[in-house]
Design goal:
With 441 residues, the chain is mostly helical. It is built from 17 helices and seven strands. The strands form three sheets. A three-stranded antiparallel β-sheet has the order 3-4-5. A two-stranded antiparallel ribbon has the order 1-2. It binds acetyl coenzyme *A (ACO). The site of acetyl coenzyme *A has 19 residues, from helix 16.
């Protein structure tokens, strides 16, 4: 018997099966041969919310949730945040290595030259209501880009794929900035090719009548670091969405739109917006104990706390706290940080949070920084989506090159009715007439 295998005994039949174990997993399809009779479908696993299911082999991002480790392609997140730009990290995620100086120049030039939106896309954005949520605008316009680049449907062609990857990473910042300006009723600002990715984003957000936008280097670097921290997080809800939609060979604009829709949920990337609402509701440090009591009674959740994978401090939250201090030196202190710090202190001493291993996640502090920079909470998830596009696309590229992958199509345990037939009035004495179709009691 091979060492890396296990024996499963089915007590329904008293039969034993040897199942190979690879990288700490068994293949769910190996369970299919466990049957009670030749016409039995075979054993399946039941795993709602994918609590214990690996859906792919990936070499992009490594997380050890118990130790609080996050690495992209082998580099610790704090190393990358300290030493790299967002575009270098995006390249790393997509290509597996940090770029050489020549590769970096080429990559930055390509991204810079694809930041413009087609004028018809600009007009498309004009069609949104004046107060449309920016995340709704981003999701819809991302999907609409599929109509601007019809070649994108050639997802099996690596060169076509690469062109769309460049376009999406380049245009995410423009789409985000335009959704911001639209809500303010301000004219859209065209990209400025002299500026870095973050500086140009700030230019498109905040330039008014001045001929050239000059970004605060501290804020531009802070944004770049936040982009690095948010760029990928292995098989999270939105990346999984990207892979599921991508597995049907939908084009990457549509798959990214689906992934962004998943990100918008308050249990995922939408949590950063919810954290600010929560801090507003708490109002002052003296109200924290009463708020924590409501959380423990199960009335509400502490937004920005807890994580499916991290059962230790989220390493991104540690870096974000340091960035917050640098940002506040430019913008002035956001008083909400004091409520957040006190909330964290009280929660981390409380048995409820300690026993459940609930720690602040990336969303707990990011919104406070964004608000200090002048963003409304509605923009926070859009800011998350800009860099996460690099992660989605890296996951998509890996998926498209993986010979193990097929269209995603889970199984179900059917709990509905056995076969029955439609009965008309008068055909069944126990039937109750509802319109013309009968419902049986
Ligand atoms: N506040 C209070 N209790 C919580 C919280 C929270 N934020 N998170 C989890 N718990 C409790 C649950 O009620 C549960 O308690 P129980 O065992 O008594 O029933 C226990 O901790 C385990 O929680 P689950 O919901 O089973 O954990 P799961 O892995 O399914 O959920 C999630 C993870 C969705 C992130 C959850 O912690 C949560 O809702 N947090 C708040 C929203 C948030 O901050 N989301 C951002 C996550 S990071 C990101 O996506 C970018």
């Amino acid at each position: 018997m091979a060492n890396d295998s296990m024996t499963i005994t089915d007590h329904r039949t008293d039969k034993s099966y040897e199942v190979p174990v690879e990288c700490g997993t068994i293949r769910a399809m190996d369970l299919r041969k466990i049957k009670t009779s030749p016409d039995d479908f075979g054993l399946m696993t039941y795993d709602p919310a994918f609590m214990n299911t690996a859906c792919c082999k990936s070499s992009i991002t490594f997380i050890d949730g118990d130790k609080g480790i996050l690495r992209y392609r082998g580099y610790d997140i704090d190393d990358l945040a300290e030493n790299c730009t967002y575009l270098e990290v995006a390249y790393l995620l997509l290509c597996g290595e940090l770029p050489t100086p020549e590769q970096q120049n080429k990559w930055v030039a390509e991204i810079t030259h694809h930041t413009m939106l087609h004028e018809s896309t600009k007009q498309f954005m004009d069609g949104f209501r004046y107060d449309a949520h920016p995340m709704g605008m981003l999701v819809s316009t991302l999907a609409a880009l599929s109509t601007v680049y019809p070649e994108a449907k050639q997802v099996l062609d690596p060169e076509v794929r690469q062109r769309q990857i460049v376009r999406i990473i380049a245009k995410m910042a423009t789409l985000a900035a335009y959704s911001y300006r639209h809500r303010l009723g301000q004219p859209y600002i065209y990209p400025d090719n002299d500026l870095s990715y973050s500086e140009n984003f700030m230019n498109m957000l905040w330039r008014m009548t001045e001929p050239k936008y000059v970004a605060s280097p501290v804020l531009a670097r802070a944004l770049d670091i936040l982009f690095i921290l948010h760029a990928d997080h292995e098989q999270n809800c939105s990346s999984t969405t990207m892979r599921v939609v991508g597995s049907a060979q939908a084009d990457p604009y549509l798959a990214c739109a689906a992934a962004a829709a998943a990100l918008s949920g308050p249990l995922h990337g939408g949590a950063n917006e919810e954290v600010l609402c929560m801090l507003d509701e708490i109002g002052s440090a003296k109200n924290i104990p009463a708020y924590i009591k409501r959380v423990k009674q199960g009335e509400i959740k502490l937004m920005g706390f807890g994580h499916r994978v991290y059962k230790n401090y989220d390493p991104r939250a540690t870096i974000i706290k340091q960035v917050a201090d640098q940002v506040f030196e430019v913008t002035g202190r956001n008083q909400k940080i004091d409520i957040a710090l006190e909330l964290e202190r009280i929660a981390l001493e409380d048995d409820y949070f300690v026993q459940r291993k609930l720690y602040p996640n990336v969303d707990f502090y990011s919104g406070i920084i964004y608000q200090a920079m002048g963003f409304q909470p509605e923009m926070f998830t859009v800011l998350f989506a800009i860099p996460r596009a690099a992660g989605w696309l890296a996951q998509w590229k890996e998926l498209m090159q993986d010979p193990d992958q097929k269209i995603s199509r889970p199984r179900q345990i059917f709990t509905g009715r056995e076969l029955r037939t439609v009965q008309r009035a008068g055909e069944h004495e126990n039937a109750k007439n509802v319109g013309r179709i009968l419902v049986h009691q």
